[in-house]
Every structure is written in structure tokens, then in C-alpha cells.
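Note to self: keep these together.
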Amino acid sequence: MSLLKTDHLSKTFGAIHAVDSVSFQIEAGEIYGLLGPNGAGKTTTISMICGLLKPDAGEVIVAGGPFWSDPQKAKSIMGIVPQELAIYEELTGRENLEFWGRVAGLKSGEAKTRTTELLEALSLTDRAKDAVKNYSGGMKRRINLGCALLHRPKLLLLDEPTVGIDPQARLNILEFIRGLRASGTAILYTTHYLEEAEKLCDRIGIIDHGRLLAEGTLSQLQERLGGDRVFVLEADFGNASVEAWDGFLQRFRVIQKAEGQLVVAAIGVRDPAECLRELLNLPIRVENVTLKRPSLNDVFLQLTGRSLRE
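Structure:
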């Protein structure tokens, strides 16, 4: 069952097309990663999905119903974890969860019971009575996540839930999110950590300048660059012009060019050994060539021309 569908969603601010006809959907028990550089349109998209902004065009459909036909019903189905911590530092972990449970519409007894369950699930029972201001960054992120789960949402919007925390705390949160997927929750996930998306997301959408440039499984996105035929060349490319190399751009797609490195993918189905011979015969002294399977970062660079944080 599709728990979230965006249908040609668009939003303009003056002359800026923040979101331009974006369409995707997320099924129950699926994690969909929405990746893009800063300013690509991710936050605006999430803001329209949860009702903070009204789209100029297009539609948000939650669990089969248009969002704006019954906003309260749609909001009752979703939980939202913003990038900025939405917790009260002076309150304890338990008090924060119980408060947000009541905000979500739970009765007092139900909020207390559910809080106890989440403290246990998030491994925070032993710190439940401590003020959140004394928590580590990872613990604050876990409480922030728990605040969105009190009412057992079927759809969860996670906006960079692991930003600014140590690797072990990140692993704990990612494992918890996998558990939510296993229980049937549909999850929209944004992150600036490409390795997270590679390991966690069932499907990935790449957005830039407000447009969804590509989406699919990691394998499907990798196939866009020639499957397992990506070559990393090491040489002095400072003044080199690949456009001037005879027929090069007809045989290879440039993914990234830097002063000391050139990353290319073979175009079409070609023998890697043949590609290697061609690359070693380029009109430049190549010091080393490595063949690798394309990473999500390679796909991202090819589509957007810039790194994820730019």
C-alpha cells in the first residue's frame, strides 16, 4: 500500500522554483531516501508533505487520501522528526515524550504507557529521569525521534536524524529505523551521509534545483553509470581538456574532474580491458588507473555536478 504519494508537487518563491513538478511514492515497509545538495528543494518538499506549506501545484496523497481534503487525518498518520531538535532541554526524557504524546492526542495514561515502551526501545530507560540538557548528542537525537513515534505513525518523515552525532550513536539510530521499517512503517529519509543512504534506503531519489533527476534502487542508479565500469585515473589533469581528446566523450562519460584525478564511466556495453587500453593511451601521462563499481556519490556527482553538501 502506498502511504505517501507526491503528484507533480511544485512551489515557487518569487522567481525561484524551489520544487518543480516532483513526483514519487513510498510504500508501507519502505525507506525512501531523498538526497540533494543544500538548497535542492528537500526541506520545501517535506514542508508541503506535512502541511507547513501549501503547494502551488500538484498534490500530496497520504494513505490514499488528498492531504488538504482532511489535513488532521493526514497528520494523524504521519510523524515528523525535524533536523533541528524539537525537545525541551529543561525537561526529562520521560517528560518530553509524555508531553509530545499528549500533543499527538494520546490520553494521559496512554501517553505514559507509550513513553515507557519507547524509552525501552530507544535504550534510554536508565536516563529517563535526567534532564535532556545533560544528554549526549546521540541521546538527544533518540529522544527527538521518540517524540514523533508516540502515536505509532504509519508514515515517518526523517530530516537528517543523525546529523552531528558520533558513529556509534548513528549506528544505534539506523538500527532502530530498520526496526520501524520491519514493522511496516513507510519512511521518507533525508541525509547528507551518502553511505547511510546506500546501506539503509530501499529506493533513492536525487533532487537538485527543485527537480527530481533520478530515482530507483542503488543498483538501478549504479547502472546509469555503466554498472561496474567506472575508472579512476590519477594524473596531472590541471590544464588538460578532455573535450579535445579525439572521440573521448563519445566513449566515456566524465563523472568528476580534479587536478589530480579523473573519474569516468564507459558508455555502452564494453569490455573493461578494452576501456583500460584506451585510457592508458590517452595524450597525457596516466600514473594509475583503478576499476571500481560506481558508488552513490559517483551517481550523485554525475547528476548534479556537485557534492552533496554544496
